[in-house]
């Protein structure tokens, strides 16, 4: 990709001028695939006296990795923590608090059609909802469950996985107020040269109080005149994939999703276009440039075929697949590019060897070995390194597809064995084989200073509350203070090309976390549980985790039912009975249920009882 893929930062604050110029340069530097000889890509911002460069001490990669015959890491634990990370990203009125340091937010998030846009997930460190990556993570979270259902059920993560999908699809339903009107973005990252969301470093719970320029979360719409087939296509894919999961247990909800998916798919096809061409979405294009939209249409059609079994969708998927106008989509699997996912999905559906061949072409780029045609470099300790910004996620995305494809081929197939071997090597690198863990709150030397705002400045602990955001941002970026709460499960961007790393928030190219990094990663872990055999893993629970409830400003933790083995230390649950995922006294939300602005306002006042009266007054004056 020839572009900066994300930023999620303080582009324009004066304190970050050097970062901005480095960033601008990077756009062109980054167009090369991966440069194994250059030590770093990123604009390291280091104060060496306090911030040592860390080179992990794992063994160097020798070129002939042999995966352990029994699982080396507790993949079930990482899945559990990865889903916790999605809780840290939740927007809107929370039915219950899983983390003491995250509460209700997005109090003024009503769209122009009166729709409630408070739900869904915030992107990365910020409170933006960018349509394309948001749609992708929901599709991928559904894809994970679809790909390895038995593993998720066996380790008691299935219900949690469904809940994570539904938190996303509830938002997508609301974001679709009319057939050919869809919310393509919620929030304002900047206005002119002034950062708004990107210049806000406090917790989402207090956004309305302190955001620069006082600009509330506003919605930008995809319309027939200003189309985005990548956003409507990806959102259609997400809803179709989710409908498959809910078909048996919540058929009404599945039907609602399918209806929205069909309409959005027609929207994408009938009004083809990319948001790159639309000045309204100029900032989306800057941070999440889309390379094309044909792949999202093919992707949506494939998932609609899986959901409906209607041949016309399969036909469409293949037509668009065969007509992808650039090679881009074939070299990466990501929020932007679905080509490789289509190879695997279309092979699964049709068993036509042409898709297996294309999948192989994609995988070959990653696979090392004698006589290999690998084009993607590996770090000295063996990470497949696609690009510096989010390197771990590109590897995790690729190995998720490898694992799913291996399952289709059968784990005893010799090519499947090659794929699985590489997948284990990559995932184990991430979890500790390189000499450290890259997942917050898991394993040895896990990261302490992820580039993530609410785990640093939480609504229950925000020492600089009320100060100029430029100072708050300076502290967030440049202080060496640890994030105050543990952002369990977040997969960081990753190392430099030489495996090295600085554990600080300044080097956000490497320390940023975001839901799309974790999405296929969560599925790849389930793939490994499936491969090694789920009977070899124990369900993991919140027992012993520090979710912030011990903090002196924390409210009361939810009370879980006695027979809940997911959130409590109780280990005595029969396997046939899935754990409850709602605390006592909380109604499970019905299909598409959403909070009303009134109830959100009430909970704001409840949530802020720790704040001074004057702050509550400010909060209320914003709401009224
Ligand atoms: C790779 O990095 C080296 C050292 O930083 C640089 O001289 C060279 O031009 C780079 N090559 C490419 C293809 O980017
Ligand atoms: C680096 O950190 C030390 C210790 O906090 C401080 O004294 C020094 O001024 C810092 N240097 C720079 C260039 O920021
Ligand atoms: C879905 O759409 C069909 C046809 O328009 C309609 O009959 C049905 O009631 C819709 N179902 C839901 C759950 O919205
Ligand atoms: C988008 O704009 C580019 C040039 O800026 C043009 O080549 C392309 O055809 C446009 N695409 C669509 C779908 O409008
Ligand atoms: C399949 O697609 C082709 C064009 O690619 C079209 O001519 C044909 O009618 C389609 N068939 C169905 C069943 O939709
Ligand atoms: C194939 O893609 C090209 C370029 O993206 C587009 O102009 C053309 O209409 C597409 N053809 C079909 C059948 O979708
Ligand atoms: C690499 O490509 C060459 C030429 O296409 C082919 O003969 C060889 O089998 C490939 N190697 C592997 C490991 O696929
Ligand atoms: C909560 O706790 C921290 C430190 O323990 C304190 O500095 C802060 O002011 C407290 N109150 C609020 C409302 O954040
Ligand atoms: C915050 O600080 C910046 C930079 O020092 C300054 O330009 C701006 O006016 C300040 N804003 C407020 C509201 O004081
Ligand atoms: C485990 O649960 C069953 C019923 O679900 C109960 O009969 C049994 O006493 C429990 N065992 C322990 C050790 O709590």
Automatic annotation (TrEMBL):
Gene Ontology MF term list: cellulase activity
Catalysed reactions listed for this entry: Endohydrolysis of (1->4)-beta-D-glucosidic linkages in cellulose, lichenin and cereal beta-D-glucans
Official protein name in the record: Endoglucanase
UniProt keyword list: Carbohydrate metabolism, Cellulose degradation, Glycosidase, Hydrolase, Polysaccharide degradation, Signal
Family stated for the protein in its record: Belongs to the glycosyl hydrolase 9 (cellulase E) family.
Taxonomic lineage from the root: Eukaryota, Fungi, Fungi incertae sedis, Mucoromycota, Mucoromycotina
EC number: 3.2.1.4
Low complexity bias: start-end ranges: 588-599
Family annotation (InterPro entries): 6-hairpin_glycosidase_sf, 6hp_glycosidase-like_sf, Glyco_hydro_9, Glyco_hydro_9_Asp/Glu_AS
């Amino acid at each position: 990709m020839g572009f900066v893929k994300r930023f999620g930062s303080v582009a324009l604050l004066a304190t970050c001028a050097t970062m901005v110029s480095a960033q601008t340069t990077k756009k062109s530097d980054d167009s090369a695939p991966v440069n194994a000889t250059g030590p770093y890509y990123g604009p390291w911002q280091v104060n060496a006296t306090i911030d040592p460069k860390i080179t992990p001490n794992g063994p160097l990669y020798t070129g002939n990795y042999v995966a352990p015959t029994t699982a080396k890491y507790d993949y079930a634990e990482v899945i559990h923590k990865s889903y916790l990370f999605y809780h840290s990203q939740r927007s809107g009125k929370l039915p219950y608090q899983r983390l003491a340091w995250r509460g209700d937010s997005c109090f003024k998030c009503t769209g122009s059609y009166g729709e409630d846009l408070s739900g869904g997930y915030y992107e990365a460190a910020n409170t933006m909802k960018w349509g394309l990556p948001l749609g992708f993570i929901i599709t991928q979270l559904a894809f994970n469950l679809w790909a390895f259902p038995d593993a998720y059920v066996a380790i008691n993560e299935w219900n949690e996985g469904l809940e994570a999908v539904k938190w996303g699809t509830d938002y997508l339903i609301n974001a679709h107020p009319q057939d050919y009107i869809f919310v393509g973005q919620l929030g304002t990252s900047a206005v002119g040269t002034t950062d708004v969301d990107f210049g806000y470093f406090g917790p989402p719970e207090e956004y309305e109080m302190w955001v620069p320029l006082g600009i509330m979360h506003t919605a930008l719409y995809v319309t027939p005149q200003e189309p985005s087939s990548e956003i409507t296509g990806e959102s259609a894919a997400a809803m179709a994939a989710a409908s498959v999961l809910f078909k048996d247990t919540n058929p009404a909800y599945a039907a609602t999703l399918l209806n929205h998916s069909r309409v959005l798919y027609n929207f994408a096809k009938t009004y083809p276009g990319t948001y790159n061409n639309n000045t309204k979405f100029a900032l989306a294009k800057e941070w999440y440039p889309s390379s094309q939209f044909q792949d999202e249409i093919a992707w949506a059609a494939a998932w609609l075929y899986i959901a409906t079994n209607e041949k016309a969708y399969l036909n469409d998927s293949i037509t668009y697949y065969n007509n992808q106008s650039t090679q881009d989509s074939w070299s990466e699997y990501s929020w932007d590019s679905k080509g490789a996912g289509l190879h695997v999905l279309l092979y699964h559906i049709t068993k036509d060897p042409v898709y297996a061949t294309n999948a192989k072409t994609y995988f070959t780029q990653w696979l090392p070995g004698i006589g290999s045609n690998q084009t993607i470099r590996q770090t000295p300790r063996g990470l497949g390194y696609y690009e510096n910004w989010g390197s771990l996620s590109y590897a995790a995305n690729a190995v998720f597809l490898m694992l799913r494809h291996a399952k289709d081929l059968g784990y005893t197939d010799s090519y499947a064995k090659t794929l699985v071997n590489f997948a284990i090597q990559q995932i184990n690198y991430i979890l500790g084989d390189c000499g450290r863990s890259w997942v917050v709150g898991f394993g040895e030397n896990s990261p302490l200073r992820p580039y993530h705002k609410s785990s640093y400045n939480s609504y229950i602990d925000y020492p600089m509350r009320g100060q100029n955001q430029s100072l708050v941002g300076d502290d967030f970026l440049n202080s060496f203070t640890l994030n105050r709460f543990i952002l369990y499960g977040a997969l960081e961007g990753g190392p430099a090309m030489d495996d090295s790393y600085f554990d600080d928030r300044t080097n956000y190219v490497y320390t940023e976390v975001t839901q799309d990094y974790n999405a296929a990663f969560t599925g790849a872990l389930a793939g490994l549980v499936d491969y090694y055999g789920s009977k070899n893993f124990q369900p993991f629970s919140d027992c012993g985790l520090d979710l912030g409830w011990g903090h002196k400003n924390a409210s009361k933790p939810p009370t879980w039912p006695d027979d809940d083995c997911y959130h409590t230390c109780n280990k005595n649950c029969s396997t046939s009975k899935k754990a409850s995922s709602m605390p006592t006294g909380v109604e499970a939300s019905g299909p598409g249920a959403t909070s009303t602005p009134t109830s959100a306002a009430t909970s704001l006042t409840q949530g802020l009882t720790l704040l001074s009266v004057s702050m509550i007054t400010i909060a209320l004056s914003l709401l009224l």
